[in-house]
From TrEMBL:
It comes from Erythranthe guttata. Keywords: 2Fe-2S, Iron, Iron-sulfur, Metal-binding. Coiled coil: none annotated. Residues 101-149 form the 2Fe-2S ferredoxin-type domain. This is 2Fe-2S ferredoxin-type domain-containing protein.
Amino acid sequence: MVAMSFSSVSLRPSELPATASNRCRSTAYLTRRRPISISFAAVSPETSSAPPAKPEIELEFLGPKPGDTVDRAIAISGDKLLRTIMSDNKLELYAAYGKLMNCGGGGSCGTCIVEIVDGQDLLNERTNTELRYLKKKPESWRLACQTIVGNKDNSGKVVVQRLPQWKK
Ligand code: FES
């Protein structure tokens, strides 16, 4: 939203620029003997009431093989699960079995495993579901359907390794 302010100025005919259109107005002024009032609208960026931008998390997705392309996405902090962000950006999360047999984000299949290479502190703590499924896995592994990206206030970069169980 943009703030606008109005101001009014009264001009005498001699102060008006001498264009063809306002010569007529000048004549009208002389005949009516009333001041001409002109209003100006100005946009003031300092007084703009636009809400501040929400913090964002930058995401980088590494493939399981060294030569795989690196995909990127931006997410509003604390707004979505990692699984949803990957789905919204059409980024592959599952291996072949998981594509067919995943639980749809319910936390009951354990097929949405990712490794957080960097930016773990920008995510929620491991949930009870993750503690159960990832008990014997490295600390950096998460279930994408249980991982909230950001906490609404933080911002930064998270690097995600897809299919860490396939990493070479
Ligand atoms: S999608 Fe099933 S546990 Fe994450």
